[in-house]
Amino acid sequence: MKTLRASAAMTMLLVALAGCSTSTSTSPSPVDGAGGPAPMKSYARADRVEMPEMAGERVDGDGRFSLKALRGKVVVVNAWASWCGPCRAEAPGLSRVHEELRGKGLRVVGVNTDVSVGKARAFEKDAELLYPSLHDPQGRQLLRLPKGVVNTAGYPFTIIVDPEGRIAAARIGAIDETELKRLVVPLLPV
């Protein structure tokens, strides 16, 4: 029994150290020019595809959420889970960017995949999130994303949607404020 517990604890530690990805893919990751992982994808205006509608109940219980209602805004869609360390680390920066650029036409929205809405609400409270999150416990909303944009099996990931509702960029892994601003500011109306 002790061996089983030790093995389970070691597995949990390895998962935590590896980040929040639950992917079992063995295919190679795209690489940047320096040979490192290339977690960011940017799309030229002509190559952008439509962001699918994401709609449903909000984590905070304050009604329903619809991504289409934000058409005309630059939208940052961030997928997160309460158990994900990098998700917790990036959340305050997402809130700060949301507040700083809100008046210029930016909105940040989360998509939470926790089965327990209570855990998701506790995360929102602890992180003092200033933006709404859609509760998507089965990941159905995320499965609507076009193939190849992100790996939906790992968290966090962020998708930048232009004012026309098309995917302008996608980031696998945590995103910091500087990188987020670099991506969204050129998309904001002048």
3D structure, described in words:
- About 25% of the residues lie in helices and about 20% in strands.
- The termini are far apart.
- It has about 190 residues and is α/β, with parallel strands linked by helices.
- The strands form 2 sheets. Strands 1-8-7-4-5-6 form a 6-stranded mixed beta sheet, covered by helices on one side. Strands 2-3 form a two-stranded antiparallel ribbon.
- It is globular.
- Strand 7 (about 155-160) and strand 8 (about 165-170) form a beta hairpin.
- It is built from 4 helices and 8 strands; from the N terminus they run αββββαβαβββα.
List the helices and strands and how they pair.
Blueprint: H1 2-17, E1 40-42, E2 55-57, E3 64-66, E4 74-80, H2 85-101, E5 106-112, H3 117-127, E6 133-135, E7 157-161, E8 167-172, H4 177-184
Parallel strand pairs: 4-5, 5-6
Antiparallel strand pairs: 1-8, 2-3, 4-7, 7-8
Q: What is the spatial order of strands in the main beta sheet?
A: 1-8-7-4-5-6
The major β-sheet equals: 6 strands, mixed
Helix content: 25-40%
> Kindly state the mean pLDDT as a whole number?
83
Low-confidence stretches: 1-19, 21-38
Characteristics:
single chain; 8 strands; 190 residues; disordered N terminus; 6-stranded mixed sheet; alpha/beta
Task: Briefly characterize the structure.
This protein is 27% helix and 19% strand.
